[in-house]
Amino acid sequence: MSAVTPLSPTLREKIGQLLNVGFRGRAPSESDAIVRDIREHHVGGVILFDQEMAGGTIDSGPRRRNIESPAQVKALIAHLQSHAAIPLLVSVDQEGGRVNRLKPAYGFPASISHQELGELDRPAETYRHAEATAQTLAELGFNLNLAPVVDLDAHPDNPIIKGRRRSFSADPAAVARHAAEFVRAHRAHGVLTCAKHFPGHGSATGDTHLGLVDVTATWHERELIPFQQLIAQGLCDVIMTAHVFNAKLDPDHPATLSKKIITGILREKLGYDGVITSDDMEMKAISSHYGLENSVPAAIEAGIDVLCFGNNLTYDPGIGGKAIAILARAVESGRISEERIDVSYQRVLALKRKAALLA
User: Fold this and answer.
1) Which pairing describes strands 51-58 and 61-64: parallel, antiparallel, or unpaired?
2) How many other CB atoms are there within 10 angstroms of residue 77's CB atom?
3) Containing domain of residue 216, as a range?
4) Best exposed site among 15, 26, 186, 285 by fewest CB in 10 Å?
5) What is the pLDDT averaged over residues 85-104?
6) Do residues 123 and 178 make contact, with C-beta atoms less than 8 angstroms apart?
């Protein structure tokens, strides 16, 4: 799909492109709220989940959210794209193994975890499995996989990386080697990837979904190596931040809100100039301590380009409009310059051109 980029976008149209928003609905007829965000707020990206986490469960378990079957997903994505003046980045967490939104139970191919691939330690096998994933995503209309995980298997008590078998290895070189094959396989099928979670979540002993996680005592600089190597090879389409707090790197802010970490280390020290996305801004590590009014402008000030609102840990059909209004006020008050918004807007457009969404 291609569309004409607005020649003179308004401030709010530019800000809309800096958002990746989750939504409720499996059928076009159930997607009015996100279609409104796409048409009226020019939201630049959407993220799909299989299970509804907010608002309880039904007797058979968690409620289904956006994913029911291959044909249904393809029709839903096509419907959303049909309303976008600038084509959408359509993303999903399809790492493989336990973090797997497109499950065999819904009619999708089986997948295996990063840990299993790392234990095999056969890069050609990692490529083969990643290629099967990329083919599935491309056929459905997804253009961004929020993977690979390049966190190290750095702590035996890590609940969210080690506990879910999401790391290729404890060895930074092995992580970089397998992640590179994962990225190349996706690129072969026109699907962007996202290396996560900068500057490293593998040494954490807590879960940032649940609250603030301090890695000061456990983090090591070698956790930067996979990011550094992928950047040097030109294999980072997008990098996702972690919400971890690391006083070694910034004594005052978690990574997502830290200019020292995002701009100072990732941009300036490692030389990365591509799109940086936040992890879900509604995770408790951010939402419980900062709130929208503080966290949204702080993340942009830190150097984030795209703010992710999974809209699933809690649900707010107006979250896109609220985030845009907060950033617009920050620009109008002089807290953030419009030039700063322009930089991220241009990075997002460049990413969409890379994905052949724009001429």
Assistant:
1) antiparallel
2) 20
3) 20-354
4) 26
5) 97
6) yes
- Say which amino acid occupies 33: A
Please state, as a whole number, how many other Cβ atoms lie within 10 Å of the Cβ of residue 292: 18
Domain of 126, CATH number, reads: 3.20.20.300
The strand ranges marked E within 173-332 are 192-198, 238-241, 275-280, 306-309
**pLDDT band at residue 7, thresholds of 50, 70 and 90?**
low
pLDDT tens track for 22-60:
999 999 999 999 999 999 999 999 999 999 986 543 344
Is 359 a domain residue?
no
CA distance 266 to 127: 26
Rounded Cα distance between 267 and 196, Å, is: 15
Q: Please report whether residue 1 resides in a domain.
A: no
Find all residues with CB under 8 Å of 278, minimum gap 6, and list them: 240, 241, 256, 299, 304, 306, 307, 308
Q: Are 278 and 304 in contact (CB under 8 A)?
A: yes
pLDDT at 62: 61
The pLDDT value recorded for residue 212 is 78
The total of other beta-carbon atoms located within 10 Å of residue 269's CB is 12
Residue 13 lies in a domain: no
Q: Which residues contact 217 (CB under 8 A, 6 or more apart)?
A: none
pLDDT one-digit tens code per residue, 109-156: 999 999 999 999 999 999 999 999 999 999 999 999 999 999 999 999
Q: How many structural domains does the chain have? A: 1
* Catalytic site positions: 209, 279
